[in-house]
Amino acid sequence: MKVVVLTGGVGGAKLVLGLQHALPPGDLTAVVNVGDDFTHLGLRVCPDLDTLLYTLAGKSNTEQGWGRAGEGWRFMEELRSLGAPDWFNLGDRDLAIHVLRTAALAQGEPLSAVMDRLRTAWAVPTRILPASDQHLATMLDTDEGRLAFQTYFVARRCEPQVERVVLEGVDAAQMAPGVGEAIAAADGVILAPSNPYLSVDPILAIPGMAETLRGAHVVAVTPVLPGRSFKGPTARMMTDFGHAVDSGTVARHYAEVANILVVDPDETVAGSPIRIAHAPVTMNSLDEKVALAEACLRLLQ
Amino acid sequence: MKVVVLTGGVGGAKLVLGLQHALPPGDLTAVVNVGDDFTHLGLRVCPDLDTLLYTLAGKSNTEQGWGRAGEGWRFMEELRSLGAPDWFNLGDRDLAIHVLRTAALAQGEPLSAVMDRLRTAWAVPTRILPASDQHLATMLDTDEGRLAFQTYFVARRCEPQVERVVLEGVDAAQMAPGVGEAIAAADGVILAPSNPYLSVDPILAIPGMAETLRGAHVVAVTPVLPGRSFKGPTARMMTDFGHAVDSGTVARHYAEVANILVVDPDETVAGSPIRIAHAPVTMNSLDEKVALAEACLRLLQ
């Protein structure tokens, strides 16, 4: 069963890891948001792609929730001692990916080819494709003016009020090689439980993507988690946009693209424009990740 | 007493550290070989400048003889796991300098300005100037063809027989800002005990340098160490060029530029074209480094 998952970073990567365990090797393709990518100290950093790569290679720091297992911070110590910008953490291991990617891009290798080389070197069975090889930049128009995503998220800790999301460069972008083909060949498409505005929309907005998805069987998974205060940029932005912080908002957001929205059994969604299915969406353990993945796959059959 | 020292990396840096201790802050300028600089994985690496910076900042690994104290190797572990080139060691701390420099050079900042910013951040009292802001490349014509310095030195461990040294790019190079002024204002110039062919000649060969040094009081220190087998590229190259491996060869090499050559009390130099002075040239301890520095300064007075 060939499956394509559209995903952002941390939250989405959990489901992608579950799907990787639930599907035979080679059957899964992850199409990953590149709107958060940015250049820092001359290095091209792709937070969502790298989170996918580390998670699927079993190299992520599961306790911390981001970055590498066994990471070191000597590089950052040096930056600080030299008075260089230290607002974005670059781990000693993480740097290897950034340095190799930056050098390869400078030589003219497309981002999709670089990422495929890296995931192959680490024997990751899932294809990891950037949504686009072109540079996009997710910008946020806020009450403090237009901010780049990393500035909003890391430097300003999601505190500014967001008025709208602007995806700079999207009109000139194309789907990366393989993305359209993978979707066309897939038995179904999954929208991972990532931030709809910041992680999934920047994939859906790439020219040709909406047409490619038309007719596909698409299951979305809500990023709204049950039974706990729902913090972070998704909740902040739902509030900023005047929406309720619940899966009804997610269902209405994905009405045009998804056939089904998976929400937690504890959540009731009234008046959804699309079918609601229930499965536990908390993915703390690997078993929970695989169980949610298998629930999604059943909905695609 | 204003002093300029022309130097390569490890061997020369020991004397420069001694000079830094022997002179009042601000009186010493190190003009450093850039012929070994190269671009590796997209990063601009300047081995001699960095050895000077680390040594003078008290951050060098004195046991190992190269690189940083407290260095880590997570970055290199990652490179290896990804199948990337690992023949040149880039430490986790060392990377900070390379990344910051590469980013600054890409923004158009001259190498001399970058290095001045770094040494100032670490409160190094000695001015560290690259001999030139332009790219030079020390190439070796050998029995295996033309090799870049790092290939000869690191990858091929000085095994190929050297026929001659070629400094690519030197004709278009200029002395870095401040070099000519520092030499003109100096009470004396010291040639550090670095490899004459690979470290000092690439400084002397920069257009205008010979004229700038004419009339200056120049004391050279031999790189030939007494009472031990003298290995490494200097001895290898003296042999390859058909010279004896002794300070007489050094004296003849520097006959046009230096007034005095300092050699160890254990060594007798017959038929030198320039004056020979004696001082212990082994610099294991800081005391020995300062003692040799003071001997050089006395010769300049």
From TrEMBL, chains A, B:
Its EC number is 2.7.8.28. InterPro entries: CofD, CofD-like_dom_sf, FbiA/CofD. Keywords: Magnesium, Transferase. It comes from the Bacteria. It holds the Pfam family CofD. One of its GO terms (molecular function) is LPPG:FO 2-phospho-L-lactate transferase activity. The keyword Magnesium applies. HAMAP family: CofD. This is 2-phospho-L-lactate transferase.
